[in-house]
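Encode chain A's predicted structure.
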Amino acid sequence: MTTLLRKHAEQQFAAELEQLAKTDQHQKLENWNLSPWAVVTYLLGGKLDNGFEISAKYIGNRRLMEIAVATLATDRALLLYGLPGTAKSWVSEHLAAAISSNSTLLIQGTAGTSEEQIRYGWNYASLLAKGPSRAALVPSPLMNAMEQGQIARVEELTRIPSDVQDSLITILSEKTLPIPELGAETQAKRGFNLIATANNRDKGVNELSSALKRRFNTVILPLPSKASEEVQIVQKRVTELGYTLQLPVDPPVLKEVQRIVQIFRELREGKTLDGKTKLKSPTSTLSTAEAISVINNGMSLAVHFGDGTLHAVDIISSLVGAVVKDPVQDAIVWKEYLETVVKERSSWKDLYRASKEIEFV
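Encoded structure for chain A:
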C-alpha cells in the first residue's frame, strides 16, 4: 500500500473532526459540519468535554481566527493577507476542512490563471460533436462549491491578472454564476463561500480592484509576535513533517530550533535581540515557513549523509539558502551577520565554523 506524501487536512485530522462533530452543542449553520465555535476550537486546539485533545493548527491571536470564521458565516468572502510564510494557506485549508469536510475545491492563482479556470470550461470533443450542453461543461472548483454549498479556495489571488480577478465580482455579489452559452446560471447554495489568500511581497502582485476589495473581509495574519510562539510553531511542524517524510531521526533539539528562529528574527528586525547591535536586513522574507524548511532539510542531510544527529553543518547550507536570495546584496548582509554576531557568541562557534568550512557566498 502506497503512503500518501501529504494528506488533505480532513483526512489527516479526521478523528479530531469526528470528535468535534459528536460533542458540538453550539448552533450550526446550514451545510456546515461544525458550528463556528467548534471550527475555532479545531484551529486553536483544546480539550473537549469528553477529554479528547484537539491539536492546535494555528498558534497565534484567537481573535483573528474568530473574525475569519465569523466572516465565513456571513455572505462576505474572506481574504487572508500577509507576508509569505504566515500560515495563510494552512489556515485556509483547515477552515475549509472544518466547515465543509472538503479542502480540495482549490484554484491555484498564477500569472497564467484564466477566467475559465475560475468560472467553467468545456469538453471540446463533446462541444464540437453536440454543441453547448450541460454535459459538455466542465465546472471549476468554484462552480462545484456553489452547487454543493461548500467552501472554495483561491490561493495567491494577487498573482492572477486583474481582469481575471474581476470575474469573481458577480459570483461574490450576486451569488450566481451566469452560463450565457446555455442561457442558464448556477446559484450558490447556503454554505458556499470563498477564502482567498494573498501576500504583499510577491513581485508579480496585481492589485485588487476597489470593486473586488469590497466583496472581501480582510484578515491580516502577522508573523509570530513572540519568539516563543515561533519556536513552538517550528518545533511542531518539523516534528509532523519528519514523521510524514519518514525521517528516522529524533525531532531536533529545542536549542537548534531556537537558534534558527533567533537568526531569522534578528535579520528580519534589523537588530540583535538585546537591541545592542544594528543589523542589515536581507531581501528575503525569512518567514516561519522557511525556518521549518531549514530544519527539515538539515534533518534530511543528517539522516542520509550524516550520523543521524542534527549538527550545525547539516543546517548551514539551507540556512544560507534561505537568507541569500540576492547573491550580491544578501551575501554582504549574511557575511556581516556572521562576523559581528555569530562569531561573537561562544555557544554558536559550531555554526560559525560550519559556515567557514563550506563557502556558499
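Residues 33 and 121 are 30 Å apart (CA to CA).
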